[in-house]
Amino acid sequence: MPKFSIGDLIINILAPDWAIHENFKLFTTKEGEPDIECRVIFQGHQDISVEGAQLIMETPKNKIYEINGNILNISGDRKAYSITSKDWSAYKIYINSEYNNPNNEEIIQKVKNGILASLRDLLVGALAQKNGLIIHSSTIIWQDKGIVFSAPSDTGKTTHTLLWQQMYQTPVLDGDVTACRINKDTPVVYGLPWCGTSGQFINASVPLGAIVFLQQCQENSIIKLDFQEAFLRLTARCFLLPWNQRLMDQYLNTIQKIVEKVSCYLLNCLPNQESVELVKECLKKQ
């Protein structure tokens, strides 16, 4: 069975080869005992019983229930659902049997993308158990450390990291999301197989050097943030599960540790080389 190391978590994925997204290949490993076992099951399940379950969150795309300590997540069209164990070590994805068709390219891609997205949601919860979280960000490696650039979508994260690549040939750890874990009291960032439209990710991990929050502006400037401002901005940029108080406490504890140990900046910027130089000079003074 294929085994993958993602964010320093070992994940077994029991699924047909055709259903496993290509992005996972870089993370294949033969080492370590699994932290999570994920099983993909094709079956007809139009009638999903929620008897005895407590509805804890509802969105246009899904409904989330808690039942016997497990998490039940049902898609809005009821074509798929997942069950996650209380400790996030076991995960089952049930997909309607009409999608069990390895001869239809359109269906293959839908299944691959669906499993890929579902496993990201799983990792959000699983990392919380290990002093970790996922940041919406584009991250480069500069002088053997990860520099995280974070901002809302369409603010310019990708453009800014592209400028770093052009000017200093910096590798991109991940172009859309970055895992961060506290490892022996040190924040460490990891590339992930989820990269948005950037298409850029690598299987690597480095100590976290700094977090830079981007904000569009008519002129370039950068300031170092105090603890409170950095904490609030980082919390807003993390993938969280607000319906679970225990997980939220773990997330906030991890965010606090990151902000205490790593310099955080606010970069008001234009998409030009001067903004890169401003950041670089700040990093050199750390």
Please explain how this structure is put together.
The chain has helices spanning 105-128, 157-168, 227-236, 245-261, 273-284, and strands at 3-6, 9-14, 36-42, 54-58, 62-67, 70-75, 80-84, 90-95, 132-142, 145-150, 172-174, 177-183, 186-190, 205-216, 221-224, 263-269. The chain has an eight-stranded mixed beta sheet, with helices on one face. A five-stranded mixed barrel has the order 9-10-14-13-12. It has 286 residues and is α+β, with helices and mostly antiparallel strands. It has two domains: 3-128, no CATH class; 132-284, Phosphoenolpyruvate Carboxykinase, domain 3, CATH 3.90.228.20. The mean pLDDT is 94. It has five helices and 16 strands. The longest helix has 24 residues, at 105-128. The termini are far apart. Helix 3 crosses helix 4.
Instruction: Give a short account of the largest sheet.
Output: 8 strands, mixed
Radius of gyration over C-alpha positions, nearest whole angstrom? 20 Å
Instruction: Estimate the strand proportion.
Output: 25-35%
**Count the strands?**
16
The H/E string reads EEEEEEEEHEEHEEEEEHHEH
Question: Architecture of the largest domain in CATH?
Answer: Alpha-Beta Complex
Number of domains: 2
* CATH fold-type name of the largest domain: Phosphoenolpyruvate Carboxykinase, domain 3
The low-pLDDT segments are none
Number of helices: 5
CATH first level of the largest domain: which class?
Alpha Beta
